[in-house]
Amino acid sequence: MGRAAGSGRVSRRRFLRGLAAGGAVLGAGAAGLADVFRTAPAAAAGAPADTLIVAQDTAVQTFDPQIVYDNTVRITRGIYEPLVGLQGSTPRIVPKLVTSWSSSPDIKQWTLKLRSGVKFHDGTPFDSDAVKVTMERLIKINRGFAYAFKPLVASVETPDAQTVRVNLNAPDASFIAKLAAISGNLVVSPKAVREHAAGDDLAQGWLKEHAVGTGPYMLASYDKGAQQVVLTQFAGYWGGWAGPHVRRIIFKIVPEASTQRLMVERGEADIVTIVAPDLIDALAKEPGITISESPTMRIFYIAMHCQREPLKDVKIRQAISYAFDYEGAKQAIFNGKLAPLNGPLPDNDPAHLAPADKPYRFDMQKAKQLLGESSRPNGGFTLSLFLFQGDPTFRKAAEILQAHLKELNIGVSIQELSSSVLLEKAGKPETAPDLLPVRNYPDYADPSAMISATFGKDAWGTAGWNFSFYANDRVEQLLKQANETTNQPQRLRMFRDAQRIIVQEAAAVFIGTLINRVAMRSTVKGFLYNPLLGNTFDLYRIYKS
User: Fold this and answer.
1) Is beta strand 84-86 parallel, antiparallel or unpaired with respect to 93-95?
2) pTM score > 0.85 for this model?
């Protein structure tokens, strides 16, 4: 799926929620920016140096920072900001909207000191009230990244305008790392939430098409009909505008990879978000185009519905894990550019599993043996599999699995759905498919991120990213213990033990870890990718020569 699973955070990581039709809607701070909207389409054919055009693979379902949990984070990252950030392309946590933090000895209470002089796009000062409103709103809405805070946060106190005290229900060594996530806890204007709340919706309706953050860019316009989003510089940005930057950024929603390729070749887009390796390989040969290539923490796997027969039988899930051609998929889908994946964590995570911990390899005899030991020894059933429309990577993986399961007398019914319909169905155990190809990345810089979001019992469906609907009490106990200690060697052992259980119980077919390859015009400078921030890139740093 793009955040993780779909064409693109579904490409944190990351799925859509229902596409409405309609016209242009001006966002906060849009007064006087009608000219930006009017000229945006014309700018596409060779954009000026102060305009960046991004061909975005994922349609916007909402700009609400407490709900966005798909590739729309590429856009919201420029509008909103977290309390802490990550330095450059590293996992090092650095101050952002806070200047410092500290914890009680039992790591159950965290005190945050806020940056002064920061304003939201609507002129509201950033203060402790904004942090309290944002965190409590995330928990009440209970979507996406709320899984990381809902069971954890007991209360949020505001001793003064520049201080926030967060009391936790249990010790959590990863709390500050969670604050660096680009989903869920991006800080929203409390004034906007209060003024635009309709009943008890906490302004979800209004923030679906509007945005008020503290980030470097404001939402200037959103044209649902033309599928285009325009951001423009926020003159009052606390970080300032010294040095090179682009004045506006245009996101054009283009789900078709082939169309994105043509756009960047013709200069109609500066950056494209396609993931198809063959198209990127072709673009690498074109003059005037640069390919940024970086290791990622973005895993590629096929979730298996663990709560529904026949996949409720672990033997059947294990058989399917042996029936997938891992090396064949690496070559056929990724042209060999795929790193190993031995469990829920990629190899560049300190708690990753060794190859010996993953018993599954392409072995049809072993698959037949395990199926013979299962509740359906002769197969004779069909599994449903959902795909995002227009994603060749998922399509190829599904067809590889389909071909080999046929040898086990297991059918696979493949259905392509729009992102909004797929997410709606896949988010509920009763309507989710049996099999779902997923691309996922950690929400925050800690091993607990990927394991909890992907296989934690509190993260089923749209409550997180657990589209396997997997649950194991021992795994939950290990994750809890790991979060209650700051002893890193002990934490790593617990995370590895939890992963071994998940792998043994075959909660998913673990295929590989993606290599991030982004095609762009050679005029684009300052592109920076952080493997812990999904498919996003730092819009503030980008400029054009």
Assistant:
1) antiparallel
2) no
**Residue 86 in contact with residue 533, Cβ under 8 Å?**
yes
Peptide bond into 266 cis (omega under 30): no
Is residue 408 a contact partner of residue 319, using CB atoms and an 8 Å limit?
yes
| CATH node for 24-72+195-292+518-544 | 3.40.190.10
Instruction: Answer whether 502's CB lies under 8 Å from 267's CB.
Output: no
Distance of alpha carbon 465 from alpha carbon 423, whole angstroms: 11
> H or E element: which one contains 519?
strand 508-521
Answer yes or no: are the C-beta atoms of 56 and 253 closer than 8 Å: yes
- Short-list 204, 243, 233, CA closest to 65: 204
43 pLDDT tier (thresholds 50, 70, 90):
very low
For the stretch 147-166, pLDDT in tens is 889 989 999 999 999 999 99
Contact 335, 281 (CB under 8 A): yes
Longest dimension (CA), the chain: 69
Q: Taking residues 460-483, what's their average pLDDT?
A: 92
- Going from the C-alpha of 113 to that of each of 175, 347, 382, 467, the distances in angstroms are 15, 35, 56, 37
Closest alpha carbon to 156 in 180, 134, 179, 182: 134
Assess contact for 211 and 232: CB atoms under 8 A: no
Ramachandran assignment for 144, one of left (phi > 0), alpha (psi -120 to 50 degrees), beta (any other)? left
Backbone angles phi, psi at 412, to 5 degrees: -130, 115
Question: Is the bond into 310 cis (omega within 30 degrees of 0)?
Answer: yes
| Closest to 357 (Cα-Cα) out of 373, 367, 345, 369 | 345
Neighbour count for residue 174 (Cβ, 10 Å): 21
Instruction: Answer whether CATH 3.90.76.10 is correct for domain 84-192.
Output: yes
The CA distances from residue 111 to 87, 103, 156, 162, in Å, are 21, 6, 10, 11
pLDDT single digits (tens) 417-459: 988 899 899 999 999 999 999 998 888 889 998 999 899 998 8
> In the chain, what are the domain boundaries?
24-72+195-292+518-544, 84-192, 296-515
